[in-house]
Design brief:
184 residues, mainly alpha, three-stranded mixed sheet, 7 helices
Amino acid sequence: MRNAVDGMLSPFPLLEQLPSVYAEDELAQRFTAALDELLAPLLSVLDCLEAYFHPGLAPPDFVAWLGGWVGAEVTGQEPEPALRAVVAGAAALHRSRGTVRGMAEAVRLTFGVAPEIEESGGAAWSARPLGPFPGEPVPRLVVRLRVPDPDLIDRTRLEELVGSLRPAHVPCSIDLVRADGAHS
């Protein structure tokens, strides 16, 4: 939290800005000292404002708020390093939203594991009309995560994340697999 910091001095003491007639006035000295104490944290924030917009440098409580600016998919329950990574990667993820690559990156940033994704879609072009359609006729999406312990993965959070990123008309299944191959 940004608030009064004991011993923080203002880089521009107000008493020095006043006419010299107030330099000896005890009331003016106490009043400007109190204002300096209130303004010092504000001036510090303004001096460091650029750092507040960098997820790796911003204070932890500000990172979650910053995530709202860039549309990061966060719940507020993420550990701090994961939260910073998701917020830092959110803007780039918007460019690949709705693609397998974008979904894989979002899952990797959120859970720390790169998923295997199978999809039925495809894209192609042909110089001849009425050619075969690419992909499979029935849409499907399978997101598979291979992790040491599937019980440690928040399945509900994974389903919500994938559900927000997948095309609405494509049915999806989530498959948590133990790294040794056993299904969960």
